[in-house]
Structures are given as structure tokens and as C-alpha cells.
Amino acid sequence: MFFAQNRFSGKERSSGLKRNKASRPILCALALAGACLAQASLAADKAQVYFISPQNGDVLSNPITVKFGLSGMGVAPAGIEVSNTGHHHLLIDVAEPPRAGTTIPADDRHRHFGGGQTETTLNLSPGEHTLQLLVGDHLHRPHDTPVMSEKITITVK
Ligand SMILES: [Cu+2]
Fold it and tell me: How far is the CA of 113 from the centre of ligand 1 (A)?
């Protein structure tokens, strides 16, 4: 942090940034990391969350096994702050996912897997349901940018 403060102080600020282009990404990263202490955690650029099963359009009977896939970042239990990690949330029949920096509700339609689980079993009412995965940080907030799966639709017999 001393490095960042030093670089941003006084006259160095504008001229220093222009003169040394190579240092810009580092400065931006430090500035963002600082801002994110009070807001949402940063997501890795290539982080992806997805359903291993079921697949969009599947017709299933209860109990339904749902397996969560995650690449480009790691799974960590809730409450443990490690950069580039999070835990899974399964959104069931949720139209609008929670936004970055807000706390993901905990109810029947917003299931938290704060123990670091990567699969679950559901019993859903017959008919169509949508499922979507959303990674949350150590404080149950979507990352900035949110790491979210496609919304899939399944039919329960
Ligand atoms: Cu959570």
C-alpha cells in the first residue's frame, strides 16, 4: 500500500502515470482492491460457474441431484476471506439474481452452500423450474462482476 500511496502523491500522479505505462495495471489493481474491501470482492477474469447436472431441458423425477462446476476460481467456505474464491448459491425460480455487493438472501429460493459443498439434492414440486448458480464471496455477496451460470429450465415429473 505504501507503493500505491507514494505513486499517487503530489506531482508524480499525472506525469508518473503517463511516463510509465507498464505500472498502470498494477496501480489499478491496487486501487480496486482497496475499494473492494468495503464492497464486493473481485472475481477472476475467467471465472465460470456452470451446471455439471442437470442440463437445460432435462425432465427429471425427485430427488434431483444438482452438481455445481466452477473453473477459474476456487471454493472456500463462507466466512473465510481468500481472494479469488467463493461458495455456491443455487437460485430456484429466481427471476432477477442479486446484484454485486448486495447480500444474497437465504430462503427456499436462494440456497447457500457455505460449507463449500459442490452438489445438493432437491425435491421440487411437479412442473417447470429454473435453476441458476451464483458464486458469493465470504460475506455472501456476488462478486464484481458476478460469477453466475446460465439459467436452466428443468421439468419435474
Ligand atoms: Cu452464501
Answer: 6
